[in-house]
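Researcher: Can you fold this with flavin-adenine dinucleotide in place?
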Amino acid sequence: MRFPLPQKDSDGNYKTGIMKRLGELINYPKLNDGQVPLKSTLIDYYYKARAGGSFLYFNNERYQVSDTSHPPDFRAREMGVESEYVAVGVEKIVDDVVEPFSRMLINDLEKQVHKGMTAYSLRAYMSFKYIPSVSLELPPMHLATSVINWCETFDNSTGSYDRGLTEAVLESLAFAKAGSEIIGDVEWKCFKGGSHVLIDYMTNYITANGNNDLIKFNKSVTSISQGGEDTMEVSVRGGPSRTYSHVISTIPLPCLRTIDLSGAGLNVMQKNALRKLQYGPSIKVGVRFQSAWWTDRFGIVGGQSFTDLPIRTIVYPSYGVDSASPSTVLIASYCWTNDAERLGALIGTEVHNITYSFLSDQYLDIYAWDWNYDPLTMGAFAYFGPGDFQDLYTALSVPNANKRFHFAGEAISTRHAWVVYEYLLASGQPQTTIEKFFNLWGKNIEWVGPSSWYVDEGRSTEDPNTNTMLRVHMACTYAGETSGEVKF
Ligand SMILES: Cc1cc2nc3c(=O)[nH]c(=O)nc-3n(C[C@H](O)[C@H](O)[C@H](O)COP(=O)(O)OP(=O)(O)OC[C@H]3O[C@@H](n4cnc5c(N)ncnc54)[C@H](O)[C@@H]3O)c2cc1C
């Protein structure tokens, strides 16, 4: 896993950014007071090749990325794309579509106002609403299907433009494409030894001093129900049911639907949201070779190659690049959406026609995984459809009827498919609880700064009573519940 962490200031603290909270967790003193501090396990991840040129291979044309040449147009004209669009290029067109929304969203965050989400899919927006900026010097008209298909092929996975436009906008923020004073540049990192290193450190800390019972491993939850006015009952397979004052579920939503929630006090919107919220498929195929032949033969260190062949993306390892034993494991395919659905069907089957004897000689082992067919995930990441952020997402950002069961995790984060440690706070909490919560857990970028209304009133931004977006959200939620607008 790779993490676009914010840059650090001169004191070694992470600057504001989407993954600031992950950075703060990595810096957390109690995870760094052992012989091998957690932060020392963080290593550079090369999102783009550090050395050598990765490959682009589309429509039977191959190009090795180089500083001294430009990529070909990969026969875009034969895909029905007019030359004026080809001259501008996919990247600029896609940025022109998405960036205005990213900027507006950042502006909302900076000014702490809320203007709502769009119900367009990315494809529908490009087809029926988007007009290219004058600076691109393209015809002032919506994009043709051929242009949209061409953009999707080079920019993302097959079928990805049918997801909500909002997803594309939020994704662009994760990569800090939009540029902003509050979302600066990112530094790509990963953990030496893999992402479970972070979990291992946290587990060791939580279970230190004989607290082994605090985390119960290998328990499959089979039902969650209201125990009364202020408790929840949780049953696990083969064990007694347990009573808790609150349940916070980070179980992936497709799996949550397989659990008995009939007595959990969910309302109609929440039940529909669990059924309806869309998840995206993904697969990875890792292959271990005898040597890092991509470095030996092509000079490639880190980065990724992209193609329209079924494997779509190849990820070169960043592990051990400066050591005597660089990783020899290649992610030979990383696919999403329709590409993952199709290639996933081949997992476990024999792969024929490996004609490259060199590769066969080098080959040691293969390991492929399809998150769609993993019963503990039933999909890779939330991948919201058009409008899903509007009603369905909102329904899951409030608790159940007795306010003791809360939805959390990757799907309820606005940064799907990333580890950002967004937090959750039940509505209707007194001011002191919120303050305590902020002190303990810090603030998310979504909730920083005072509301513009507050500043407009001429009050100090240092005032501890400053109205944050979080408080506005909680007040609205609470009002919705007490007025009966949120029904159970
Ligand atoms: C292919 C892929 C690549 C990714 N790459 C990156 C990356 O490079 N960088 C990044 O930041 N993020 C990445 N992510 C996203 C990241 O993994 C998620 O955002 C993160 O794991 C979400 O954490 P979570 O706790 O919400 O859910 P999960 O990590 O999915 O945890 C959910 C847990 O619920 C458990 N569970 C399921 N059913 C039950 C049940 N009935 N009872 C009890 N437990 C149950 C599961 O076993 C699982 O442990 C990637 C995700 C995928 C799928």
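Model: Folded with flavin-adenine dinucleotide in place. The mean pLDDT is 84.
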